[in-house]
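Before a colleague's protein record goes any further, I have to sign it off. Would you go through it and say whether the fold makes sense for this chain? Take the sequence as given and treat only the tokens as open to question. The record follows directly below this note.
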Amino acid sequence: MELMVLLNALVTRLLFVLHSLIGVWRVAAVKKEPKYWLLALLNLLLCLETGLTLKFKQGRGYKWFSPAIFLYLICTVPSLWLLEIHHGTQYCGNEPGAVQVNVSNQDFSQSRNSSHGSEGIDHHIIQTAKVFVNQLSTICETVWTLALHQTFLLLLVIGRWLLPIGVEITRDQLSQLLLMFVGTAADILEFASETLDIEDVRKNYALINAILAVWTWSMLQFPLDLAVQHIGCKPTVSPRRIPSLLLCRYSAELWNIGVSLFIQDGPFFIVRSILMGHFRIFNQMLVFFTAKNILVVTLQLYRLAVITLDFRATILQKSKKEVSC
């Protein structure tokens, strides 16, 4: 069992590092400057975290927070920022791309034939790898960026699933958390792709940075496990301390409401409202998702009111019982 825990911990972090390095490779290829490979040094933080976790936690997770997920965000988000900022200068042409792929396939066949006749299997493997990388480089940059966004969010969910859990979280709670993350990831991907694909947005550098900042802010909920874990009321908590009692009883519900209002749906609604109100940008999907954000925020406020009223009724009922006794 301990071997599987260590294996899951190592494999998951290895996937994080590989995906981060692919992002750095794309940045260096797009910018055509080797200095961007320095972004790969951020993975040293993840390697350090891996060593510390294996030594002090035997590969298992921490309570309420996942350092591996957080460091994966640190390693990958800068690359996606640079790719999205560079996105405006990238254009896709169907015919040139097709020609490049055909040439690559021809080179692949030639390298395979020549390797069999001369330098053997090792040379063939190296040549095949080079041709494969060249073929990947011919893919349109906008496709690469979208694919990195998609795989990034998928790896966050899959990685959280594969990472060994700590003793403080149960498998039932983990399954609830993963289901929440799937829906959250879909909303975040839709927000980034739908807003950044608008032509008028691409012409405004400050607006791109603002959208990416909100996108980055929304990603910070993934390292946290508070959505399914209750803090729990200590015996020393006095019934007269209403805020503390409310927080410890409904910590998970209040966290979910706070995430929706201040990290996800609230900021998304503000950005979309600015796009429509100030910049006069309108399209069917933008209007629909703005309405969806309004509905979610309204329901979350309604949920908060219900929790508060229910808690207040419980406190009043207990107070009446104490007085009658």
The chain is about 75% helix and 0% strand.
